[in-house]
Amino acid sequence: MDIKLLHGDCLELMKDIPDKSVDLILTDPPYRTTSRGSSGGTGGMLKEEINKKGMVFQHNTIQFSEWLPKLYSIIKEQGHLYVMVNNKNLSKMLVGVEKAGFKIFKTLIWAKNSPITNMYYMDSHEYIIFCRKGKAKRINNCGTKSVLNVDNPRNKVHPTEKPVELMEILINNSTLEGQTVFDPFMGSGSTGVACMNTNRNFIGIELDDKYFDIAKRRISEVRNKAQVRMML
Q1: What are the tens digits of pLDDT across the range 144-170?
Q2: Any residues with CB less than 8 A from the CB of 187 and at least 6 apart, and which?
Q3: Domain that holds residue 35
Q4: How many domains does the chain have?
Q5: What pTM does this model have?
Q6: What is the 3-state secondary structure (H, E, C) of 110-155?
């Protein structure tokens, strides 16, 4: 198993990743969230990371059009792309992936069972845009429902941390053991942990110093536990 964690700007670091070299891209990119006042719930986010302009991270001004075309170059023919997005940015992302050359299969729903306070309807889900490059390739478990009921992680170390279980479902459906998964916005490393658990190679990029260190630690802990199990 080959794990590569890269610290820096994905727009620069992706230049060194060969075209048609990864089997799956699975990512939760930075984007603006809905602004909330003091009465708004955070849905498990770390409160100190959010301000009233909808800025969740220090680095989330990157535009979809800046990185989606490079993802299209990096992924292999028939490779799958999963991009996580909220309601506010869904339409822009749908347009963006098609402009980059991807074909949209469908939009999946992650039912996270942790409602966020809202003056209209409480938000309890997020969207996952499921795309392909080139000809269609079926998923490995065709019985998987388009609504994925997976609980939101507790005790988050990242404002928008995704559950490892959710990532494992998508990885298992779109790759085989030994294939390579890429996440250009790695965050705290849930995709990398899921790759370790499912015996996939992983390339992850993260710009933020704090979250890169967290991701490195989480993935190292899984690797160390796996080595202990092998020794036993």
Answers
A1: 999 999 998 777 776 778 999 999 999
A2: 28, 158, 160, 161, 162, 206, 211, 215
A3: 3-231
A4: 1
A5: 0.86
A6: EEEEEEECCCCCCEEEEEEEEEECCCCCCCCCCCCCCEEECCCCCC
